């Protein structure tokens, strides 16, 4: 049997007229309003030029005009699939500038929320990736379980998608009654479901044919382009800020950094990137179990919230591990109540820039697969 | 009215009804929407189509091409760079067509109304809107109510007597 | 490696590149002229090996003041970090591009060009990235005024009927 790579290579020998194809900004598989300008030779893609900015909502301009705490709802809207992680990392950056320590309970709740968010985000990534390669059922499975995570969030802070929950120095609400029990029930329900996804999608023959060996991203290229998160780990680089630069209380938990191993093709293919996400959900469950067990019962979650947020003059670059990778905030303060400059270094921005490198030479239908495996969120690419 | 139409059909197999009502009954029962996610609200739109909320109960089915859709759900922030494309996509839809503006951003610019130099302050500046769904983002239930309101509006339409 | 050690190492090879910084500053300040060589040194020197450009931030010191770029570097092997700042005049300031050294910089430099109007010399494809091609002005500059109309679409919110 000829492999897909050979088919593509042999087709490339025949020269046909070059065609420029626009994919997007409205296209079901671009995960939002991304436009790809694709040059094709027949069905084979020779180069991809991403055009972004269709969702540029002036986040950085807003930061300069709003006070530090007012920025938090806008960080929600940047990466709208991982609002908790954005809140967490932004709040920690400002806390570092102010020199605030938060209480044990707040740290535990933040970790619980961020890890639940990671599960929700990866569920959407896995579900829509299945949709991209032509399977509708995994999407319905993933959304069924994602709704349960959203129920927990809604129970805690009243919102389903954009929470504004983690504040500088604390949280907007304490955990509601019986949260620990409900979260425990969710974990017990969810853990066996991961095998269900594996049965329906991961080891599906058609799925492996579509994703294995496609869009191989070598580790050096990934590092040079600044890829991070599951995209980098899919290429076999063991790099996770939760372990390598532990922030919050991540150093207390025992979990594994998942990397791809190329078992369905080459190291760093779409299947690896996908499977890293699936296994990371399992690791999040592990962290959640430990965090729920250690969660202190008593404590005020708002005692450390400063009355006035006025960081001293200076700058900080703080980064943490969002579900998509290294999310960094570079904040310059001039000692006033509003930030002088906030730059959000979004992981998906760098992850997307690699698309031409790994997408050229594949068929158009594979571009959809590669794009799905990068798991981009346009809200944080364009900001 | 559409409900009476179904009732009469059940009773004696013969319907005497205005053809406008027949058409409206059919059209209101299948508002295929244009799957056009822009930002955060698109995730809630996906959630509305997913198993728990199941928008297909109302006959609403996502279409990826504007040429097959009846309703355009503008879900999310429309930026100036995108505004011209939204207008073009709207023009590509076949008549009769409707627009649901989902979320604060599409309604009025939402949280970006003041400093958003690149945000369109309301999608109604470029396309006509039939139903506004408030919220940031609206819950899937809110989108459903918006769709039901649109169905009411469709049922009051007079497609045959419309001046083109 | 600590900041002082990095400073000594860079200063030994490119003595003209460094600009004195304020007391207690946590970054190195550099002149744009030698930046391309210094970046190559930072990337490939055995002791430094900064292989990741974490972030590239443009900033504006205010109307009439210079524009600046901050580079946040990190080494995955040596596990140390560095911030480098380069400031150039507001009009016609040019900074050498490091897109060939760290590929991350390619899009980040385009973004800084788009929002601040900083020119990067030697960039393979310096165009606007977020805003449309026909946009006027650089929005994140402190003296930016948003336009009234873009292609016939009113930009500021119409507030009639609010009061």
Question: What do these coordinates show?
Answer:
The complex is a heterotrimer of chains A (383), B (164) and C (163). Chain A has helices spanning 4-11, 59-65, 72-78, 83-98, 104-132, 137-157, 179-202, 205-211, 219-224, 230-234, 241-244, 270-294, 347-353, 355-359, 364-374, 378-382; strands at 18-23, 35-41, 44-51, 166-167, 170-171, 314-322, 325-333, 341-345. Chain A has 383 residues and is α+β, with helices and mostly antiparallel strands. Chain A has a domain at 72-331: Orthogonal Bundle (Cytochrome-c3 Hydrogenase, chain B). In chain A, helix 6 (137-157) runs antiparallel to helix 7 and helix 12 (270-294) runs parallel beside helix 15. Chain A starts with a helix and ends with a helix. Chain B is an alpha/beta fold. The relative contact order of chain B is 0.18. In chain B, helix 3 (40-49) links the parallel strand 1 (33-34) and strand 2. By secondary structure, chain C is of the alpha/beta class. In chain C, the strands form three sheets. A five-stranded mixed β-sheet of chain C has the order 1-2-5-4-3. The longest helix of chain C is centred in the last third of the chain and has 13 residues, at 104-116. The N and C termini of chain C lie far apart (59 Å). The chains are: A alpha+beta (383), B alpha/beta (164), C alpha/beta (163). The A-B interface holds A 25-28, 32-33, 53-58, 61-62, 65, 73-74, 77, 80-81, 124, 139-140, 143-144, 146-147, 150, 160-162, 378-379 and B 35-40, 42-44, 46-47, 50-52, 64, 66, 76-77, 79, 81-82, 85, 89, 111-112, 114-119, 136-137, 139.
